[in-house]
Specification:
By secondary structure, this protein is α+β, with helices and mostly antiparallel strands. It has 25 helices and 17 strands. The longest helix is centred in the middle third of the chain and has 33 residues. The relative contact order is 0.17. Belongs to the PpiD chaperone family.
Length: about 625
């Protein structure tokens, strides 16, 4: 979303790290001790600062959409609550409110001039490729996010004041050297392991399952094969591509664009040009007469004490010559000609020594592409106006179908789509807006107006409605048989691989060398060197590498391979402890950040104990959809 772009880079790194650590700390310790009833419109308050239910819900839904986008599938409110997303966001907002309250108590402030300078200097608020701040473009960004300049500036001022407070506490923390050395040794220790990789092929083929076996598996895992909830969704997508078809581009328009942008369609003509600038027109004309009488351009330059460095412009395109009159003359003269031209800075003797013809595609070959580009460009300019028309129609009570018909837009209807964006046949449905639209559609009831989804990079807008709901249901065995067979095969294959790996491990632990174990199983023995904690290497994932560091030198173990369901049976053959003079700069920086975060967390906890934190349990549950009907 553009709003995320507006905020990108605005928050200090200390604040970001602090809020992450704060969230994790709250999740571990809980905040139940501050949950008490309060007013009807705020989910929480910190001192005199209140967090409204509307503000919390907006931020909650925004985070839910972001997570759905990253996951590539919609995350339901129930799943979000199971992950603790609602508590995380509330804790973040409580942290912000605590900082705002303390900043107010300390009378911290940021001037209008500083905020204006920060906004103007931030490249995220400029047009793509622009080097300077464009107020018109900035207003466009604000408008597309339903923000006023006053509201955004107030938000940035609030953020800047928080940063002042955080940076005054977290900077310059010294880390004890003994701690740095210990962490450095832990992080930089390396190990070498011999291993055997056990694959499904090594475990052997599975016997074909009978219907009785499959039915028993189906009965034991019936919930896995339930038909998901489906929803019928109407979607109105407004993008440059959807508007471009309605734009008219004449052949004259395309021809004019072709002439303006000839460099796009080939290589421009280039010429080697020399010039001598005269302050006196009479001197220039006299030199021109000498050349006509037989003197060379080089003779005139030498007589004036000029070298090639003073006269040569090089092999240049017409656009590279700054003076238009000189450029026109140089590119209209034949090769070898010399002419006196009245230029911007005086009379100039121009000499063309070489002509390199340009090459370009003919207009007819690129006409269609130029027309398409012009239609798309015009559609981009018309996008916001069309957006406002759609919003006006919706505000008047029109349905999306009525809006589409009146404004000549296309309304797409998806009769049945699940939360992951698939139809009942399992095919993906190409829903405009993807996870954002699906997440919102599954959170809404039929007939309820939903929020507009803005596509990334100002790519357009999507409006949607939930038309009907088909509830989830249990499938019959016959309906699910193919899926049951696939899932049973997957499960049994994993069990077979695990059993084979365990058998090999038992033989190695009983005293048989791992090389012999591998040979008897007709599997290759391989070696992984330089293994380090938390870093994937060879068949070991970043998570499974921990198994290698859980055993002593000469010890054996099993790890889940990076590619499931493979297993790795390994022996740690060598442990290498880093030397005392190792580079500990990375460990020092990381420890410093963690200690800074601890200081900030303690400071925040102290403030909250002093000024008080209250949370409205009932309103909090309603805002996340957990207790809307209670």
């Amino acid at each position: 979303m553009v709003l995320q772009t507006l905020r990108k880079g605005a928050s200090g790194w200390i604040a970001k790290i602090f809020l992450v650590i704060l969230t994790l700390s709250f999740l571990v310790w809980g905040i139940a001790d501050v949950f008490r009833g309060m007013g009807a419109t705020s989910v929480a308050s910190v001192g005199a600062t209140e967090i409204s239910a509307d503000a919390f819900r907006r931020q909650y839904l925004d985070q839910l959409q972001q997570i759905s986008r990253r996951a590539g599938r919609p995350i339901s409110p129930d799943q979000a609550r199971a992950f603790g997303l609602d508590r995380q966001i509330l804790n973040q907002m409580i942290a912000d409110a605590t900082l705002d309250e303390q900043a107010s108590r300390l009378a911290l402030a940021v001037s209008d001039e500083q905020i204006a300078r920060e906004i103007a200097d931030n490249p995220n608020y400029r047009r793509p490729g622009a080097t300077s701040f464009d107020p018109a473009y900035f207003q466009q960004l604000l408008r597309s996010n339903n923000l006023t300049e006053q509201r955004f500036v107030a938000s940035e001022r609030q953020r800047a004041v928080r940063d002042q407070l955080l940076k005054s506490l977290g900077a310059g923390v010294a880390v004890p050297q003994v701690l740095i050395d210990a962490v450095g040794r832990f992080e930089n220790e390396t190990r070498t392991a011999s291993y055997v990789r056990v694959t499904p092929a090594a475990a052997g083929p599975l016997a074909a399952p009978t219907d009785e076996v499959l039915r028993a598996y189906f009965d034991a895992h019936k919930v896995t094969f339930r038909a998901p909830e489906y929803r019928k969704i109407s979607v109105l997508a407004l993008t440059p591509a959807t508007l471009a078809a309605a734009e008219t581009v004449t052949e004259a328009d395309a021809k004019a664009d072709y002439e303006r942008n000839l460099s796009r369609f080939g290589t421009p003509e280039r010429r080697e040009v020399q010039q001598i600038v005269f302050t006196s027109a009479a001197d220039a004309l006299a030199a021109d007469e000498k050349i006509k009488a037989g003197a060379s351009f080089a003779d005139i330059a030498a007589a004036r004490g000029l070298t090639a460095k003073d006269t040569d412009l090089g092999l240049v395109a017409k656009s590279a010559i700054l003076d238009p009159k000189i450029a026109d003359a140089a590119f209209s003269m034949p090769e070898g000609a010399v002419s006196a031209v009245e230029g911007r800075f005086g009379t100039v003797l121009v000499h063309v020594t070489k002509v390199e013809p340009g090459a370009r595609q003919p207009f007819e070959a690129v006409k269609d592409q130029i027309s398409a580009d012009l239609r798309l460009d015009r559609a981009r300019r018309a996008l916001l106006d069309k957006h406002d028309q759609v919003e006006d129609e919706r505000a008047s009570g029109s349905t999306l179908a009525e809006v589409a018909q009146k404004l000549g837009l296309r309304l797409q209807t998806f009769d049945a789509v699940d939360r992951s964006g698939h139809t009942p046949s399992g095919d993906p449905a190409d829903v405009p807006g993807g996870a954002d639209v699906l997440s919102g559609a599954f959170a809404a009831q039929p007939g309820v107006e939903t929020d507009t989804v803005q596509l990334p990079q100002n790519g357009g807008f999507v409006w949607y409605e939930t038309n009907a709901i088909t509830p989830a249901r249990d499938r019959t065995f016959d309906e699910a048989k193919s899926a049951v067979t696939a899932r049973w095969t997957e499960s049994e294959t994993e069990k077979a691989v695990e059993a084979k790996a365990t058998a090999l491990l038992d033989k190695a632990k009983a005293g048989t060398p791992l090389a012999q174990v591998a040979a008897e199983a007709d599997l290759p023995l391989q070696i992984a060197e330089g293994l380090r904690r938390g870093r994937a290497a060879g068949p070991f994932s970043a998570e499974s590498i921990a198994s290698v560091f859980d055993v002593k030198e000469g010890g054996f173990g099993i790890a889940l391979a990076a590619t499931e369901p493979d297993r790795v049976v390994f022996e740690v053959t060598k442990i290498m402890v880093p030397p005392p003079d190792m580079d500990t700069s990375r460990a020092s920086a990381e420890l410093s950040r963690q200690i800074e975060n601890d200081v900030l967390l303690q400071y925040l906890s102290a403030i909250q104990k002093e000024i008080g934190v209250k949370i409205n349990d009932k309103l909090f549950a309603q805002a996340t959809g957990a207790g809307a009907t209670n």
